[in-house]
Amino acid sequence: MTTDPDWEAALDEDVPRLARLLRETGAEEIEVGDATRTIRMRRSSAPGVAAAERAVTEDEESTDEGLMVVSSEQVGVFVALTEPGAPPQVRVGDAVDEGQTLGYVDVLGVAHDVVAPEDATIERLLVHDGEVLEYGQPIAELRRSAGAT
């Protein structure tokens, strides 16, 4: 039986990355593949997962109506918009426009933009470049612009 060198390289690269994502995010299962092959990794939930989920829920609840939370819609690695060796392109106190990209979530090499849902000012950045994100994890707190409803 011959093996496909591209498939072997993908296994060598993707399996450790998927295992790390499972461990660090608390996800129960990740599956990737193409038309002929699939890699599916599954694990049982660790005791700390429920506590992490409760912490995310508590962080999202805010008594300040002027604040909004931008949360991850993906499980992956957060990538700040930066040039190598340069400061981040968005910082606390920066005004951002609706639809402006704040960074992106790398999901197995595919970039998913994280954007400002409306005109606002960055109040807090809650994650750092290279940090593994869970689905629904808060990324930033934005203060609505004056006059926004």
Structural notes for this entry:
With 149 residues, this protein is of the alpha+beta class. Helix content is 23%, strand content 34%. It has helices at 5-25, 47-60, and strands spanning 29-33, 38-42, 67-71, 76-80, 95-96, 101-107, 110-115, 120-125, 132-133, 138-144. The strands form 3 sheets. A 4-stranded antiparallel beta sheet has the order 3-10-8-5, with helices on one face. A 4-stranded antiparallel beta sheet has the order 7-6-4-9. The model is unreliable at 44-62 (pLDDT under 50).
| Secondary structural class | alpha+beta
Indicate the overall shape. Answer: elongated
Number of helices: 2
Order of helices and strands: HEEHEEEEEEEE
Mean pLDDT: 75
